[in-house]
Amino acid sequence: MQSYREELWFNVPGRRAFINITPQVETCLRKSGIREGFALVNAMHITASVFINDDESGLHHDYEQWLEGLAPHEPVSSYRHNRTGEDNADAHLKRQVMGREVVVAVTEGRLDFGPWEQIFYGEFDGGRRKRVLVKIIGE
Amino acid sequence: MQSYREELWFNVPGRRAFINITPQVETCLRKSGIREGFALVNAMHITASVFINDDESGLHHDYEQWLEGLAPHEPVSSYRHNRTGEDNADAHLKRQVMGREVVVAVTEGRLDFGPWEQIFYGEFDGGRRKRVLVKIIGE
Amino acid sequence: MQSYREELWFNVPGRRAFINITPQVETCLRKSGIREGFALVNAMHITASVFINDDESGLHHDYEQWLEGLAPHEPVSSYRHNRTGEDNADAHLKRQVMGREVVVAVTEGRLDFGPWEQIFYGEFDGGRRKRVLVKIIGE
Question: Which of A104, B23, B72, C80 could form a disulfide with B58 if both were Cys (CB 3.0 to 4.6 A apart)?
Fold first, then answer.
């Protein structure tokens, strides 16, 4: 069994964003030389997500509005977590809806995707450097 | 390390359904000959889910109602994604709540499940042929 | 490829709780002797979650309140699942938001975590003995 590890770094200027990281994960897979196995892609921070969906800007707008409805940023004081001096409790909630990680099958040296699957980094508390872990195991 | 890959096909006549796919995944596992490892089962389409829960029709009714409350299909025009000509933005949202994939431990040649765990395909935008990927790695 | 399997047991006295199980998972990893691979940690019961987030009591309070808002326990009769004699339909819903499982990279014999990542058992229907499965594969 072989394994490969790489960190992807992000610094989103605003509070929230969705970034297509499929090309970076494909590059990791090529570098790994692994042909059959699993690729794990996970946010290393607890106010961010990695998820798979469509690369369509209207949908991303809908996600943004929907998540803000499910777990509003304001009023900041409505969250006990924010008494620690943070203002990002909502980001911890939004990340649970969208998920921490994806596991993608690797087949014949490629990410084994359906027709529209793309991997996204979902940032819910930006303005600083944060990481995604890519770990691939197989042969 | 061995690996096994199979696609399961579905064509749900209505818009939404939950289908127990545990027997199909067990068949894949038998065919793989793998005794110890991981089985990844994921929707290959971004308006569908694979998840593990109870095979109880009342609960599935509750999921349906609950998801419709969290991410209503109507009004279709309330979603920017639907300006592309689609009417399935809600399906992309519902799928995030229920998840894209499950990873199941394989132990002694069986899916290593608790007492009530069953694997479901969750369709949120039916009426066409769609796929689930089963990929098993191990020995 | 090596594999390791262990069950963790819990008996939460009340209905709901979040328990940090990172030390137990680290112990499993040490016992496995695996240096590079993946660790799967999943609830074996369908009214419980395993998830990764922050070990901060205020945040756990926020999760509790938020989940109760998204999927209220009462009125019990509002859920069709509860006609089976159960009163835990809400627990099946809450568990979908928080997730069944996490997959964690194993690197150099350690859980390959970002700065604040901790693994939690989320109980939504306590008062009885329930299990979490830890399965580690790699080399």
Answer: C80
Query: What is the token pair recorded at B35?
Result: 């005794």
Radius of gyration of chain A (CA): 16
The size of the A-C interface in CB pairs under 8 A is 93
Interface size B-C, in CB pairs within 8 Å, comes to: 93
- Please, are residues A138 and A28 in contact by the beta-carbon 8 Å criterion? no
Q: Do B46 and A98 touch (CB under 8 A)?
A: no
Low-confidence residues of chain B, pLDDT below 70?
Answer: none
Q: Which of B34, B53, B111 to mutate to test the interface with C (most CBs of C within 10 A)?
A: B53
**Does pTM surpass 0.80?**
yes
ipTM: 0.97
| Pick from A51, A105, A139: CB nearest B1 | A139
Q: Residues C123, C64: contact at Cβ < 8 Å? A: no
Q: Give backbone dihedrals phi and psi of C38, rounded to 5 degrees, phi first.
A: -125, 140
User: How far, rounded to the nearest angstrom, does the alpha carbon of residue C63 sit from its chain's CA centroid?
Assistant: 14
Q: Which residues of chain C have pLDDT under 70?
A: none
Return the number of other C-beta atoms located less than 10 Å from residue C9's C-beta. Answer: 9
Per-residue confidence (pLDDT) for residue A139, from 0 to 100: 98
CB C61 within 8 A of CB C53: no
- What's the rounded mean pLDDT across residues A76-94? 97
Phi and psi at B65, nearest 5°, equal -65, -40
Average of per-residue pLDDT across A18-25 = 98
Residue type, C112: D
Q: Which two tokens stand for residue C3?
A: 């594999």
Q: Which residue has the tokens 């935008």?
A: B125
Burial of C95 from C-beta contacts in 10 A (0-12 / 13-18 / 19+) = buried
DSSP string over chain B: -EEEEEEEEEE-SSS-EEEE-HHHHHHHHHHHT--SEEEEEEESSTTEEEEEE---HHHHHHHHHHHHHHS-S-SGGG-GGGGGT-S-HHHHHHHHHH-SEEEEEEETTEE---TT-EEEEEESS-SSEEEEEEEEEE-
Cα–Cα dist B49/B68, whole Å? 15
Please report residues of A whose CB lies closer than 8 A to that of C102: 100-101
Q: What percent of chain A has pLDDT over 70?
A: 100
What pLDDT does residue C35 have? 98
Rounded to the nearest angstrom, the minimum Cα separation between C99 and chain B is 8
